[in-house]
Write a structure and sequence with these properties.
Blueprint: H1 2-45, H2 52-75, H3 77-101, H4 104-129, H5 137-146, H6 148-157, H7 159-168, H8 175-192, H9 212-220, H10 222-251, H11 256-272, H12 274-284, H13 286-306, H14 314-340, H15 346-389, H16 392-396
Helix pairs in contact: 1-2, 1-4, 1-6, 1-8, 2-3, 2-4, 2-15, 3-4, 3-8, 4-5, 4-15, 5-12, 5-14, 6-11, 7-8, 10-11, 10-13, 10-14, 10-15, 11-14, 12-13, 12-14, 13-14, 13-15
Amino acid sequence: MTEIVTKTTTVRTRAMGVLFTGAAALNTAVTGATTVSTLIASDAHGDGWSGIPNAAVVAGTAFGALYLGVLIGKKGARTSLKLVYGVAAFGGLVAFLGGVFANLLLLLPGLAMLGIGNGAAGLVRYTAAELYPDNRKGFALSIIVWAGTIGAIAGPALLEPAAATAGFFGLPSTSGAIGFAALLCTIALLASATMPKTAFPAQGPKRPPLTLARVAAALKRRVVLVPLVSMTAAHVTMVTVMTMTPLQLHRQGHGLEVVGYVLSAHMIGMFALAPLSGKIADRIGGRATITAGVGVLVLAAVTVIAAPTSHTAGLPLALFLLGYGWNLVFVGSSALLSRSLADDERTQLQGVIDALVWSASGLGGIIAGGLFGLGGYALVAGVAAVLALTPLALVARRS
């Protein structure tokens, strides 16, 4: 009996290492690539194009989550990850060529393929949860969310050495981070090839893809609707405030250094405490964790309204709370989905939900710009607070 437990634990640890490596590599790759791609598009075609690279990544991420959910059901996790990370590595190479030649016809499709890998890297939190019993699923998936900490720190930190490396080879400095992104995706691909064969079934069960009618019906069920609405509301709330923070600081006369440390506080809130959120979700349940996250998001918005010009304390605190409130809702919702779905629909519905949440993230930026123009940063925060509260009516009701 001891040998069986030891072997199972060893396989699980190795599998978690593979999943964590892939998530960390893709987070780092996308963070760096999107940063420089915004500059490439702006320099080549004007400021009006600066948001298009990020839109390509978001579109690819939504598709990647949806596609991996279907693919795992057909081919199993090990093969599916190799395929999707292979697409991301190829996309990184295409995007790199687009960066070298400042060609959006290469850059944008390449970024979309990078996004496909990013969507998969996010969805594997549920794959990690499958390795653990119900009372530890929240912690397991939070470890994969925690991998985002590496991307948040390493992505910006690699920009300068990547630019120097590109310059050494006589290439445009902005192409360096995209080249590094392609390399990181290759690392994720190689890591996925080391996944223990016994960690997951070699092939998914023979089940047909869910029909649109069945997906629509499933999304109306409370066990699905609560986490879907909660994650969407939290994501739009976060993006709405976060995207306007650099502009608010710029209007106050602050430079990139101030913007950098305020956003660093936000990134720490988003990812660094994910294991704590997982422990909370396992201890008090997903619904209570979502409720706590909503409270933290509202507190963040109130802090922004109370101190919209405080770059030394108020805004760093508000952006940290914004990130951690999102994290609580995200982990709590994911924990609910990891436990409450039937085997024949779980992976596909999880992919659909991630795709919907990522698609909604683009809406946050559009809303934010219009609100900022109408009433400034305080109006953005006020509307964000209202958005954050929307899941409570569903969370409070029991099925």
